[in-house]
Specification:
Blueprint: E1 5-8, H1 12-24, E2 30-33, E3 40-41, E4 60-62, H2 64-71, E5 74-76, E6 81-85, E7 90-93, E8 96-99, E9 102-105, E10 109-111, H3 130-140, E11 145-149, H4 153-164, E12 168-173, H5 185-197, E13 201-204, E14 208-214, E15 217-222, E16 227-230, E17 232-235, E18 239-241, H6 244-248, E19 257-259, E20 270-272, E21 277-279, H7 287-301, E22 315-317, E23 324-327, E24 335-341, E25 344-350, E26 356-362, H8 369-375
Helix pairs in contact: 1-7
Bound molecules: flavin-adenine dinucleotide (FAD).
Length: 381
Amino acid sequence: MMQPIVIVGTGLAGYGAARELRKHDRETRLILVSRDDGASYYKPDLSEALTKGHAPDDLVKKTAEAMAEELDAEVRTHAEVSAIDTAARTVTVNGEALAYRDLVLANGAEPISIPLAGDGVDEVLKVNDLQDYRVFRSRLEGADSVAILGAGLIGCEFANDLANAGFTVHNIDPIDWPLQRFLPEAPGRALESALADLGVDWHLGTMVEGVQRAGDGFELSLSDGGSLNADLVLSAVGLRPDIALAESAGLEVDRGVVVDRELRTSDPHVYALGDVAEGGGHVLPFVMPLMNAARALGKTLAGESTAVRYPVMPVIVKTPACPTIVYPPRATDGEWTVSGDAPDLEARYLDAEGKLDGFALTGEATGKRRDYIKEAPPLLA
Ligand SMILES: Cc1cc2nc3c(=O)[nH]c(=O)nc-3n(C[C@H](O)[C@H](O)[C@H](O)COP(=O)(O)OP(=O)(O)OC[C@H]3O[C@@H](n4cnc5c(N)ncnc54)[C@H](O)[C@@H]3O)c2cc1C
Protein backbone atom coordinates (compact mmCIF):
# COMPACT_ATOMS: atom_id res chain seq x y z
CA MET A 1 0.00 0.00 0.00
CA MET A 2 1.18 3.53 -0.81
CA GLN A 3 2.44 5.35 2.27
CA PRO A 4 0.61 8.56 3.31
CA ILE A 5 1.57 12.17 2.87
CA VAL A 6 2.47 13.42 6.35
CA ILE A 7 2.22 17.10 7.28
CA VAL A 8 3.93 18.33 10.46
CA GLY A 9 1.89 21.23 11.86
CA THR A 10 -1.73 22.34 11.80
CA GLY A 11 -1.24 26.09 11.54
CA LEU A 12 -2.29 28.08 8.50
CA ALA A 13 0.55 26.49 6.51
CA GLY A 14 -0.18 22.85 7.41
CA TYR A 15 -3.95 23.09 6.99
CA GLY A 16 -3.51 25.36 3.96
CA ALA A 17 -1.33 22.77 2.19
CA ALA A 18 -3.80 19.99 3.10
CA ARG A 19 -6.78 21.94 1.72
CA GLU A 20 -4.95 22.70 -1.52
CA LEU A 21 -3.88 19.07 -1.92
CA ARG A 22 -7.48 17.94 -1.49
CA LYS A 23 -8.60 20.17 -4.37
CA HIS A 24 -6.58 17.93 -6.68
CA ASP A 25 -6.33 14.59 -4.89
CA ARG A 26 -8.89 13.06 -2.52
CA GLU A 27 -7.38 9.59 -2.69
CA THR A 28 -3.91 9.70 -1.19
CA ARG A 29 -3.88 9.02 2.54
CA LEU A 30 -3.13 12.18 4.49
CA ILE A 31 -1.97 12.47 8.08
CA LEU A 32 -1.44 15.79 9.90
CA VAL A 33 0.55 15.77 13.12
CA SER A 34 0.50 18.59 15.64
CA ARG A 35 1.87 19.00 19.10
CA ASP A 36 -1.04 21.33 19.93
CA ASP A 37 -4.77 20.55 19.96
CA GLY A 38 -5.06 20.91 16.19
CA ALA A 39 -7.77 23.59 16.36
CA SER A 40 -7.95 25.64 13.18
CA TYR A 41 -7.74 29.38 13.85
CA TYR A 42 -6.58 32.47 11.99
CA LYS A 43 -3.43 33.56 13.82
CA PRO A 44 -3.59 37.26 12.83
CA ASP A 45 -6.83 37.45 14.87
CA LEU A 46 -4.78 37.16 18.06
CA SER A 47 -3.57 40.75 17.94
CA GLU A 48 -6.98 42.32 17.40
CA ALA A 49 -9.22 40.09 19.51
CA LEU A 50 -9.66 42.58 22.38
CA THR A 51 -10.79 45.35 20.05
CA LYS A 52 -13.20 42.98 18.34
CA GLY A 53 -14.50 41.65 21.65
CA HIS A 54 -13.41 38.08 21.00
CA ALA A 55 -12.47 35.60 23.73
CA PRO A 56 -9.85 32.97 22.80
CA ASP A 57 -12.55 30.31 22.27
CA ASP A 58 -14.32 32.56 19.77
CA LEU A 59 -11.22 32.39 17.55
CA VAL A 60 -11.46 28.64 16.97
CA LYS A 61 -12.86 28.13 13.48
CA LYS A 62 -12.87 24.34 13.53
CA THR A 63 -11.78 21.63 15.93
CA ALA A 64 -9.21 19.00 14.90
CA GLU A 65 -12.06 16.48 14.46
CA ALA A 66 -13.95 18.80 12.13
CA MET A 67 -10.78 19.46 10.15
CA ALA A 68 -10.10 15.72 9.86
CA GLU A 69 -13.56 15.28 8.37
CA GLU A 70 -13.25 18.25 6.01
CA LEU A 71 -9.88 17.08 4.76
CA ASP A 72 -10.61 13.37 4.72
CA ALA A 73 -7.45 13.06 6.79
CA GLU A 74 -6.20 11.79 10.10
CA VAL A 75 -5.25 14.63 12.47
CA ARG A 76 -3.02 13.46 15.32
CA THR A 77 -3.08 16.02 18.12
CA HIS A 78 -0.75 16.44 21.09
CA ALA A 79 1.70 14.49 18.95
CA GLU A 80 5.27 15.71 18.74
CA VAL A 81 7.54 14.90 15.82
CA SER A 82 11.00 14.48 17.32
CA ALA A 83 13.01 13.08 14.39
CA ILE A 84 13.00 12.54 10.64
CA ASP A 85 14.76 9.63 8.96
CA THR A 86 14.95 10.70 5.33
CA ALA A 87 16.58 7.42 4.20
CA ALA A 88 13.85 5.23 5.73
CA ARG A 89 11.20 7.90 5.01
CA THR A 90 9.81 7.84 8.54
CA VAL A 91 9.18 10.41 11.24
CA THR A 92 9.16 9.69 14.96
CA VAL A 93 5.82 10.74 16.47
CA ASN A 94 5.52 10.48 20.24
CA GLY A 95 8.30 7.90 20.10
CA GLU A 96 6.82 5.75 17.30
CA ALA A 97 7.85 5.55 13.65
CA LEU A 98 5.38 6.77 11.06
CA ALA A 99 6.18 6.09 7.39
CA TYR A 100 5.57 8.71 4.70
CA ARG A 101 5.50 8.93 0.92
CA ASP A 102 6.19 12.66 1.13
CA LEU A 103 6.69 14.82 4.20
CA VAL A 104 5.66 18.47 4.58
CA LEU A 105 7.29 20.57 7.28
CA ALA A 106 4.88 23.28 8.42
CA ASN A 107 6.12 23.48 11.98
CA GLY A 108 6.36 27.25 12.19
CA ALA A 109 8.67 29.54 14.12
CA GLU A 110 9.76 30.04 17.71
CA PRO A 111 9.53 33.37 19.51
CA ILE A 112 12.97 34.85 20.18
CA SER A 113 13.98 35.39 23.83
CA ILE A 114 16.29 38.26 24.63
CA PRO A 115 18.63 37.77 27.55
CA LEU A 116 17.19 39.40 30.68
CA ALA A 117 18.21 39.46 34.31
CA GLY A 118 15.93 39.32 37.33
CA ASP A 119 13.54 37.06 39.20
CA GLY A 120 10.58 37.92 36.97
CA VAL A 121 12.06 36.62 33.73
CA ASP A 122 10.16 33.32 33.81
CA GLU A 123 6.91 35.27 33.98
CA VAL A 124 7.52 37.15 30.73
CA LEU A 125 4.83 36.03 28.27
CA LYS A 126 5.08 35.42 24.54
CA VAL A 127 2.21 34.92 22.12
CA ASN A 128 2.73 32.86 18.99
CA ASP A 129 -0.26 30.55 19.10
CA LEU A 130 -3.77 30.26 20.45
CA GLN A 131 -2.64 28.40 23.56
CA ASP A 132 -0.14 31.17 24.44
CA TYR A 133 -2.93 33.63 23.83
CA ARG A 134 -5.26 31.84 26.28
CA VAL A 135 -2.57 32.16 28.96
CA PHE A 136 -2.06 35.84 28.09
CA ARG A 137 -5.79 36.61 28.30
CA SER A 138 -6.18 34.84 31.63
CA ARG A 139 -3.21 36.77 33.03
CA LEU A 140 -4.71 40.04 31.75
CA GLU A 141 -7.66 39.58 34.08
CA GLY A 142 -7.10 41.90 37.01
CA ALA A 143 -4.17 43.63 35.28
CA ASP A 144 -4.21 47.35 34.42
CA SER A 145 -0.87 47.80 32.70
CA VAL A 146 1.20 45.86 30.22
CA ALA A 147 4.82 46.37 29.17
CA ILE A 148 5.50 45.19 25.63
CA LEU A 149 9.07 44.40 24.58
CA GLY A 150 9.40 45.14 20.88
CA ALA A 151 7.99 47.77 18.50
CA GLY A 152 7.84 45.52 15.46
CA LEU A 153 4.66 44.36 13.77
CA ILE A 154 3.36 42.19 16.58
CA GLY A 155 4.42 44.57 19.36
CA CYS A 156 2.68 47.52 17.67
CA GLU A 157 -0.48 45.54 16.98
CA PHE A 158 -0.75 44.33 20.58
CA ALA A 159 -0.03 47.88 21.80
CA ASN A 160 -2.95 49.21 19.75
CA ASP A 161 -5.26 46.37 20.79
CA LEU A 162 -4.46 46.66 24.51
CA ALA A 163 -4.74 50.46 24.47
CA ASN A 164 -8.13 50.16 22.75
CA ALA A 165 -9.23 47.89 25.57
CA GLY A 166 -8.23 50.47 28.18
CA PHE A 167 -4.93 49.04 29.41
CA THR A 168 -1.98 51.28 30.18
CA VAL A 169 0.62 50.22 27.64
CA HIS A 170 4.39 50.71 27.72
CA ASN A 171 6.41 49.76 24.67
CA ILE A 172 10.17 49.43 24.91
CA ASP A 173 12.54 48.92 21.98
CA PRO A 174 16.10 50.05 21.15
CA ILE A 175 15.01 51.18 17.67
CA ASP A 176 14.30 54.88 17.03
CA TRP A 177 10.73 54.59 15.71
CA PRO A 178 8.21 51.77 15.54
CA LEU A 179 8.61 49.33 12.64
CA GLN A 180 12.00 50.81 11.81
CA ARG A 181 12.93 47.62 9.96
CA PHE A 182 10.04 48.20 7.53
CA LEU A 183 9.25 51.91 7.54
CA PRO A 184 11.27 55.05 6.86
CA GLU A 185 11.17 57.65 9.59
CA ALA A 186 8.18 59.83 8.66
CA PRO A 187 5.53 57.07 8.49
CA GLY A 188 7.16 55.42 11.51
CA ARG A 189 6.73 58.66 13.47
CA ALA A 190 3.12 58.94 12.27
CA LEU A 191 2.43 55.50 13.74
CA GLU A 192 4.34 56.40 16.92
CA SER A 193 2.32 59.54 17.54
CA ALA A 194 -1.05 57.96 16.69
CA LEU A 195 -0.40 55.23 19.24
CA ALA A 196 0.91 57.80 21.75
CA ASP A 197 -2.38 59.71 21.34
CA LEU A 198 -4.15 56.50 22.22
CA GLY A 199 -2.09 56.31 25.43
CA VAL A 200 0.86 54.11 24.47
CA ASP A 201 3.89 55.16 26.50
CA TRP A 202 6.94 54.72 24.23
CA HIS A 203 10.42 53.98 25.54
CA LEU A 204 12.36 53.92 22.28
CA GLY A 205 16.11 53.93 21.93
CA THR A 206 16.47 51.91 25.12
CA MET A 207 16.44 48.26 26.08
CA VAL A 208 14.95 46.22 28.85
CA GLU A 209 17.77 44.66 30.84
CA GLY A 210 15.94 43.13 33.76
CA VAL A 211 12.50 42.11 34.97
CA GLN A 212 12.06 41.93 38.72
CA ARG A 213 8.97 40.96 40.65
CA ALA A 214 7.51 43.98 42.43
CA GLY A 215 4.33 43.50 44.48
CA ASP A 216 1.77 41.76 42.25
CA GLY A 217 3.54 42.97 39.11
CA PHE A 218 6.98 43.69 37.77
CA GLU A 219 9.63 46.36 37.67
CA LEU A 220 11.56 46.62 34.41
CA SER A 221 15.03 48.13 34.43
CA LEU A 222 16.12 49.84 31.24
CA SER A 223 19.56 50.32 29.68
CA ASP A 224 19.21 54.13 29.85
CA GLY A 225 19.08 53.85 33.64
CA GLY A 226 15.31 54.29 33.83
CA SER A 227 12.74 51.86 35.12
CA LEU A 228 9.02 51.30 34.84
CA ASN A 229 6.36 49.17 36.46
CA ALA A 230 3.72 47.00 34.83
CA ASP A 231 1.34 44.25 35.89
CA LEU A 232 2.26 42.05 32.94
CA VAL A 233 5.20 41.77 30.55
CA LEU A 234 4.78 40.62 26.94
CA SER A 235 7.82 39.91 24.82
CA ALA A 236 7.29 40.49 21.08
CA VAL A 237 10.85 40.79 19.83
CA GLY A 238 10.53 38.55 16.80
CA LEU A 239 10.33 34.98 15.57
CA ARG A 240 12.92 32.54 14.31
CA PRO A 241 12.07 29.63 11.98
CA ASP A 242 12.07 26.41 14.01
CA ILE A 243 14.79 24.65 12.04
CA ALA A 244 15.98 22.20 14.74
CA LEU A 245 13.99 19.22 13.46
CA ALA A 246 15.12 19.69 9.84
CA GLU A 247 18.69 20.43 10.83
CA SER A 248 19.03 17.28 12.91
CA ALA A 249 17.71 15.29 9.94
CA GLY A 250 20.56 16.68 7.83
CA LEU A 251 18.33 18.86 5.65
CA GLU A 252 19.83 22.09 4.34
CA VAL A 253 19.01 25.01 6.61
CA ASP A 254 19.99 28.64 6.64
CA ARG A 255 17.80 31.10 8.56
CA GLY A 256 14.93 28.76 7.70
CA VAL A 257 14.59 25.34 6.10
CA VAL A 258 15.88 25.96 2.59
CA VAL A 259 13.42 25.17 -0.21
CA ASP A 260 13.40 25.55 -3.99
CA ARG A 261 10.61 27.05 -6.12
CA GLU A 262 8.61 23.86 -5.67
CA LEU A 263 8.96 24.12 -1.89
CA ARG A 264 11.23 21.06 -1.93
CA THR A 265 13.97 20.85 0.67
CA SER A 266 17.39 19.30 0.01
CA ASP A 267 15.64 15.90 0.27
CA PRO A 268 13.34 15.11 -2.70
CA HIS A 269 10.56 13.73 -0.49
CA VAL A 270 10.53 16.52 2.10
CA TYR A 271 8.85 19.90 1.51
CA ALA A 272 8.49 22.97 3.73
CA LEU A 273 6.30 26.08 3.79
CA GLY A 274 5.11 28.78 6.17
CA ASP A 275 7.12 30.37 8.96
CA VAL A 276 9.67 27.52 9.03
CA ALA A 277 10.72 27.86 5.38
CA GLU A 278 13.22 29.98 3.47
CA GLY A 279 13.01 30.24 -0.30
CA GLY A 280 15.22 32.30 -2.60
CA GLY A 281 16.83 33.84 0.47
CA HIS A 282 13.47 35.03 1.83
CA VAL A 283 11.88 34.10 5.13
CA LEU A 284 8.30 35.35 4.70
CA PRO A 285 6.40 34.84 7.97
CA PHE A 286 3.05 36.10 6.67
CA VAL A 287 -0.24 34.65 5.53
CA MET A 288 -0.20 35.63 1.84
CA PRO A 289 3.13 33.94 1.05
CA LEU A 290 2.10 30.74 2.80
CA MET A 291 -1.22 30.67 0.90
CA ASN A 292 0.62 31.04 -2.40
CA ALA A 293 3.06 28.34 -1.32
CA ALA A 294 0.19 26.04 -0.28
CA ARG A 295 -1.47 26.42 -3.70
CA ALA A 296 1.70 25.41 -5.53
CA LEU A 297 2.50 22.59 -3.11
CA GLY A 298 -1.02 21.14 -3.28
CA LYS A 299 -0.55 20.66 -7.03
CA THR A 300 2.99 19.35 -6.74
CA LEU A 301 1.96 16.75 -4.16
CA ALA A 302 -0.93 15.74 -6.42
CA GLY A 303 1.57 14.97 -9.17
CA GLU A 304 1.65 18.22 -11.12
CA SER A 305 4.99 19.89 -10.33
CA THR A 306 4.27 23.58 -9.79
CA ALA A 307 6.62 26.45 -8.96
CA VAL A 308 5.47 28.98 -6.35
CA ARG A 309 4.88 32.56 -7.47
CA TYR A 310 4.79 35.48 -5.09
CA PRO A 311 2.87 38.51 -6.34
CA VAL A 312 3.07 41.94 -4.66
CA MET A 313 2.16 41.02 -1.08
CA PRO A 314 2.02 44.12 1.10
CA VAL A 315 1.83 43.64 4.86
CA ILE A 316 -1.24 45.21 6.41
CA VAL A 317 -0.32 46.35 9.91
CA LYS A 318 -3.34 45.97 12.20
CA THR A 319 -2.96 49.32 13.95
CA PRO A 320 -6.30 51.07 13.39
CA ALA A 321 -4.99 54.14 15.23
CA CYS A 322 -2.82 54.67 12.15
CA PRO A 323 -3.66 52.31 9.29
CA THR A 324 -0.36 51.19 7.77
CA ILE A 325 0.49 49.11 4.72
CA VAL A 326 4.03 48.25 3.76
CA TYR A 327 5.68 46.35 0.94
CA PRO A 328 9.31 46.11 2.01
CA PRO A 329 11.79 46.75 -0.80
CA ARG A 330 14.13 43.99 -1.97
CA ALA A 331 16.73 46.38 -3.34
CA THR A 332 19.26 47.88 -0.94
CA ASP A 333 20.79 50.45 -3.26
CA GLY A 334 17.72 52.68 -3.46
CA GLU A 335 16.14 55.43 -1.43
CA TRP A 336 12.88 56.30 0.27
CA THR A 337 11.04 59.48 -0.66
CA VAL A 338 8.03 60.51 1.38
CA SER A 339 5.16 62.78 0.41
CA GLY A 340 1.92 63.93 2.04
CA ASP A 341 0.99 65.37 5.42
CA ALA A 342 1.26 63.17 8.50
CA PRO A 343 -0.49 60.90 9.24
CA ASP A 344 -1.48 60.50 5.58
CA LEU A 345 1.85 59.58 4.01
CA GLU A 346 3.08 57.86 0.86
CA ALA A 347 6.61 56.53 1.01
CA ARG A 348 8.12 55.26 -2.23
CA TYR A 349 11.31 53.24 -2.31
CA LEU A 350 13.00 53.78 -5.67
CA ASP A 351 15.82 51.47 -6.73
CA ALA A 352 19.06 52.71 -8.31
CA GLU A 353 17.28 52.93 -11.67
CA GLY A 354 14.47 54.99 -10.24
CA LYS A 355 11.88 52.19 -10.36
CA LEU A 356 9.42 51.59 -7.51
CA ASP A 357 10.69 48.61 -5.51
CA GLY A 358 8.79 48.98 -2.23
CA PHE A 359 6.31 51.27 -0.57
CA ALA A 360 4.70 52.25 2.72
CA LEU A 361 1.34 53.99 3.10
CA THR A 362 -0.18 55.40 6.27
CA GLY A 363 -3.51 56.96 7.24
CA GLU A 364 -5.78 57.98 4.34
CA ALA A 365 -3.00 57.18 1.86
CA THR A 366 -3.63 53.46 2.47
CA GLY A 367 -6.62 53.99 0.13
CA LYS A 368 -4.11 54.16 -2.75
CA ARG A 369 -2.86 50.63 -2.16
CA ARG A 370 -4.27 49.30 -5.45
CA ASP A 371 -2.27 51.76 -7.54
CA TYR A 372 0.88 50.84 -5.67
CA ILE A 373 0.25 47.10 -5.95
CA LYS A 374 -0.07 47.56 -9.73
CA GLU A 375 3.14 49.54 -10.00
CA ALA A 376 5.42 47.52 -7.70
CA PRO A 377 7.31 44.43 -8.93
CA PRO A 378 6.22 40.98 -7.70
CA LEU A 379 8.52 39.35 -5.15
CA LEU A 380 8.92 36.24 -7.33
CA ALA A 381 7.34 36.23 -10.79
C1 LIG B 1 0.02 37.97 16.91
C2 LIG B 1 0.30 37.70 15.46
C3 LIG B 1 -0.33 38.47 14.49
C4 LIG B 1 -0.07 38.25 13.14
N1 LIG B 1 -0.70 39.02 12.21
C5 LIG B 1 -0.46 38.80 10.90
C6 LIG B 1 -1.13 39.56 9.90
O1 LIG B 1 -1.92 40.46 10.19
N2 LIG B 1 -0.89 39.28 8.59
C7 LIG B 1 -0.02 38.28 8.20
O2 LIG B 1 0.15 38.06 7.02
N3 LIG B 1 0.64 37.55 9.14
C8 LIG B 1 0.42 37.78 10.47
N4 LIG B 1 1.10 37.03 11.41
C9 LIG B 1 1.98 35.94 10.94
C10 LIG B 1 1.17 34.70 10.51
O3 LIG B 1 0.14 34.50 11.44
C11 LIG B 1 2.09 33.48 10.43
O4 LIG B 1 3.01 33.73 9.37
C12 LIG B 1 1.37 32.17 10.14
O5 LIG B 1 0.25 31.99 10.98
C13 LIG B 1 2.35 31.01 10.29
O6 LIG B 1 1.70 29.80 10.10
P1 LIG B 1 2.49 28.41 10.17
O7 LIG B 1 1.45 27.37 9.90
O8 LIG B 1 3.70 28.46 9.32
O9 LIG B 1 3.03 28.30 11.66
P2 LIG B 1 2.26 28.05 13.05
O10 LIG B 1 0.93 28.66 13.04
O11 LIG B 1 3.20 28.45 14.11
O12 LIG B 1 2.03 26.48 13.10
C14 LIG B 1 3.03 25.59 13.47
C15 LIG B 1 2.39 24.24 13.74
O13 LIG B 1 3.40 23.25 13.90
C16 LIG B 1 3.16 22.47 15.06
N5 LIG B 1 4.45 21.97 15.50
C17 LIG B 1 5.60 22.66 15.72
N6 LIG B 1 6.60 21.82 16.02
C18 LIG B 1 6.08 20.57 15.99
C19 LIG B 1 6.63 19.29 16.22
N7 LIG B 1 7.94 19.09 16.50
N8 LIG B 1 5.81 18.21 16.14
C20 LIG B 1 4.50 18.38 15.83
N9 LIG B 1 3.94 19.57 15.59
C21 LIG B 1 4.73 20.65 15.66
C22 LIG B 1 2.46 23.44 16.00
O14 LIG B 1 1.73 22.73 16.97
C23 LIG B 1 1.55 24.18 15.00
O15 LIG B 1 0.39 23.40 14.73
C24 LIG B 1 0.84 37.23 12.76
C25 LIG B 1 1.49 36.48 13.74
C26 LIG B 1 1.23 36.70 15.08
C27 LIG B 1 1.93 35.88 16.13
